[in-house]
Prior knowledge:
The structure holds two protein chains of two kinds. Chain A folds into two domains: 47 residues, no CATH class; 210 residues, MetI-like (MetI-like fold). Chain A is mainly alpha-helical. Chain A is built from 13 helices and no strands. Chain B is an all-alpha fold. Chain B has a single domain, classed as MetI-like fold (Orthogonal Bundle). Chain B is 74% helix and 2% strand. In chain B, helix 12 packs antiparallel against helix 13. Chain B is flat, with a radius of gyration of 24 Å. Chains A and B meet through helix 1, helix 3, helix 4, helix 5 and helix 8 of A and helix 1, helix 3, helix 4, helix 5 and helix 6 of B.
Amino acid sequence: MKWVYRLISLVVGCLFLIPIVWMIFVSVKQEGMKITSLIDWFTPPYSLAVYDQIIRQTKLMNWVWNSFFVAAVVTVLTVALAAMAGFALSKVPFRYKTIMFFFILAGLMIPGESVIIPLYQVAKELNILNSYNGLIFPALASPIAVIVLKSFFDGVPNDLLESVQMDGGGTWRIFLHIMLPLTRPAVASMAILTFIGSWNNFLWPFLSVTDDNLFTLPMGIPTLMNQWAEDYVKPMVINTISSVPIIALFLVFERQIIKGISLSGIKG
Amino acid sequence: MRMTKLKADAQALLFLLPFLIVYLLFTVWPMIKGVQMSLYKWTLIKRIKYVGWHNYQNMFHDQEFWASLWHSTIFVLLTTPTMIILAIILALIANRNSRLQKFYRSVFFLPSILSVAVASFLGLFMFQPYTGFLNSLLHLVHMLPAGKEIFWLTETNLAWIAVGFLTLWWTVGFNFILYLSAMQDIPDEIYEAARLDGATDSAVFWQITLPLLAPITKTITMLQIIASFKVFLQIYIITGGGPLDQTRSVIQYIWQTGFRKNNLGYAATMSYMLFFILLVLSAIQYGMNNRKEAQMR
């Protein structure tokens, strides 16, 4: 019986991998090859000519850079803002703390998609449509990051902070030199999840950007794909180039990503 | 930390202010702005005129709106149970002691990090007739006779199945991780005790593992319903909302109304309806959780 389990498990595992493997194999095929059977997709001759063509003749690499730049800035700022706010909610004994907590918690109930139409109008009035600012700033309002980081800060004992305070450490010093280092794994997980979320964010860039120099990948890809509905190689080259950076990131930070998801329950 | 009241207030304000500015500007203010917009005839260029409840009345009689809402609901009904069952199966596979444990954990989650655009185009090309991956595979193993093709994307029911499969493959990883970590939290002693009492593998699963997973299942169900309800791009890319708008999701309809038909006011109105639906779903779920907890005490 045991080997039956194992065999089924292995088949399921391979099924999950196959689309990605297929994508990569198709991307290195020569264009215009005749495909009569499934096997033909995987057999030589291979060629990187289409990669060369896509990289030279389209704005894809430009969009890879945009996605990376926006995601990096969004990640740094989101985590910085959320950590500061979470720290105040967790450790600073100010008045109206409960009200403030629930005010931010209520933000979890507002799905981004349901305010995206008025958000477009607000961004228009602030004159940040079609700009990096427009891609970055609306993404920073992440109540979930505040709430999750607060709950991690709650786990740091007050005695420790107070003893630093006795030695003359100010609030900033406690935040930067005690709190953040102590909760580094949680902050790192939050940062990576924010990065992936931003890298894959589609709806807001799709609505707010019309200048194709500012496109990020999720909206650049459909624009590019529309030109080659018949062909397989070009779309799969585009897919592969777009996925390699994020797959590499996943392989490096797999542990933090998985920990981050299981601790926070954040869904993409 | 200890400090005077005044100092604490000042410090808290300093630390909260940067977040509060973006939160007020890009979440709270749009929420309020949306109410205003829903009461106006409002185009992409400018505000035209006050129309009162007209947009809301319009919405209740708009068959296309209710149809799109129903399509999103179909998608929820299709994906939520399958997503949960598959996630449990995958977690069982990855939780078994084997040398491949790490491999399974990686491959089940890997698709989840792909961009929705990448996953959708991958799906689009896999489900193509004649040369697509799936039909070729079916031909290869002789499950589909030579010369016959399945047109996954042009028939409504098959299109739903295709989109469902794609979404399952692409996003089940999140639920899988949540289940896996919940399973790993179950103490080994419980399993050992059950084995000593002679319980079979399936008895252990149905009577121990599954009941212990009930709380996380509730959470995942809620997250999944809400996530599935917000579906847009994978359907849009794979079927374009067709055939004949039969798979058009509510978000696609809101977008088309706002940006293609140049009617932001009405789009904002429908966004509010979407918001209330999601709010009610969350509230029901929240109420269910609390009642169960009260019973346990």
